[in-house]
């Protein structure tokens, strides 16, 4: 993939995250959680490694993109010769199971749209067995099943799902894709419009706890805090370093690491930021996760953990992926988990002391 990284916007639901490009392609998504199996891996390869495109069929004259105020809901406006359409992308927070929602809204004129879904689990390697029944596609592979429901006819062609439709001023076309375990009942997809309202309220209510008087740059602070919360595994309180793996530190180099884990050093700094911003509940959740993760003797403390607190992160390479802008290898897992980095202990102790002095009750269990 050659798109600039700054062309991507982050979507998240507190369990996992997706990256959507300016031109409407979702090129990265792991399910069921941040460190899970990528079903869209075009970011580290090409479209054949999994992506979901949704954009006008005609030449785009101009486009613009923004987050809805104080949310992780992305709105992208496309202008073509026939009119203007908006694509709304988000992941509902708190619902079960995890879903990805895309809503196309006609703003003016008539806009022809097209979409292509390529599901590729195992980091772009496995094509699922898919069955299409009109407006629904059910796909299964390994331990995964995915249901896509739409308000237009879905065409199963070879190893992808294609759809063509048009929107006029005021019309809306909704797509909902939901993940489930393969041996579980068919996952129920949420109502797209209800989920949009609930998701907007969730993010706005959460960031409303921040007092703008704490900083001279409230807009930047609020967006940073929202991003930090999106990188938090809500059920445990763990904070990951990044939602991606193997984005290179240097062009076409080999410094390509998997950052979908919780580094004690990095998150200790993040927790101090949360405390300074007044988010004590989130800081307490991280502190409680930390104490569970590092339970045992001090000599066994790792530098990083999975979001559930487990410590085994065996590293391997996905050799079928070309890497972002041909930076290889693509690494899954992180061998640095077994390194001994003694500064980590001091930084963790320092953050725990700051939490104590900030008023967090001492954990006595």
UniProtKB/TrEMBL annotation:
Its signal peptide is: none
Residues in Trehalase-like N-terminal domain copies? 3-194
GO terms in the biological process aspect are:
carbohydrate metabolic process
InterPro entries linked to this entry: 6-hairpin_glycosidase_sf, 6hp_glycosidase-like_sf, GH15-like, Trehalase-like_N
Please report the stretch or stretches of sequence annotated as the GH15-like domain. 223-359
Q: Entry's Gene3D superfamilies?
A: 1.50.10.10
GO terms (molecular function) for this protein are:
hydrolase activity, hydrolyzing O-glycosyl compounds
| Superkingdom, natural source | Bacteria
Tell me the PANTHER family matching this sequence.
GLUCAN 1,4-ALPHA-GLUCOSIDASE (PTHR31616:SF0), TREHALASE (PTHR31616)
Q: What is this protein called?
A: Uncharacterized protein
